[in-house]
Design brief:
9 strands, alpha+beta, globular, 208 residues, single chain
Length: 208
């Protein structure tokens, strides 16, 4: 990917409702992100980075159902549009939160003609294999590639750019979007926030 293009990519505002799945045990710290610094994710190298280079990230989906599929709380075959859905017993207690997002500057990686073209990436790369980079070793039948996946390298460079977050294509539902936010970068833009309210409208969680 052409990371030098990041400096010239268009930055857009993102406002609206986004959805995040959490374990009910963590409901009181729903927007906490410290635990994500060392955890591998599609756009985060986690422990593959030295501690001083690690960064926190929070992931959201544009639809509650997509949020469940992103963490594999439910499974579905999308072949030929068959609407089959199977719950994952291991994640049966997953709680879906709706967050109100107000971000001044994000990159839209779903922009095919401008952003993807300048970065030199595409939908297949943004949504493809990344777990394999951590699973393949000299003892597995397929030994490489391994290490930091291209999407994880991209996430690192996006964080370093100072952007508040970015939109991408859902890896589980290719017709929908995900939003990744870098909490540390939110304070760089006055007025940017992520809030969760209760049924009465009272703010119960807020970033920054």
């Amino acid at each position: 990917m052409n990371f030098l293009a990041l400096a010239a990519l268009p930055r857009v505002r993102e406002t609206g409702s986004w959805h995040r799945c959490i374990d009910p045990a963590h409901i009181t710290t729903a927007l906490s992100s410290a635990h994500t610094m060392a955890r591998l994710a599609r756009f985060n190298p986690g422990y593959l980075l030295i501690p001083s280079a690690q960064f926190a990230s929070l992931s959201f989906a544009d639809d509650p159902d997509v949020a469940l599929r992103e963490i594999e709380a439910v499974f579905q075959s999308l072949a030929r549009g068959v609407p089959s859905r199977v719950s994952n017993p291991a994640s049966s207690s997953t709680f879906i939160l709706k967050a109100q997002v107000n971000l001044a500057e994000v990159f839209d990686l779903t922009d095919l003609t401008v952003v993807q073209a300048r970065l030199g990436t595409h939908a297949q790369e943004l949504t493809g294999d990344w777990l394999g980079y951590d699973m393949r070793t000299h003892t597995t039948r397929v030994t490489g590639p391994n290490g930091v996946a291209p999407t994880q390298e991209l996430g690192f460079e996006l964080f370093r750019s100072g952007i508040e977050g970015f939109l991408s294509i859902s890896a589980k539902v290719p017709t929908n979007k995900t939003l990744t936010i870098f909490p540390k970068n939110l304070h760089l833009h006055a007025g940017s926030s992520v809030t969760i309210t209760d049924s009465s409208g009272r703010v119960v969680h807020r970033l920054p």
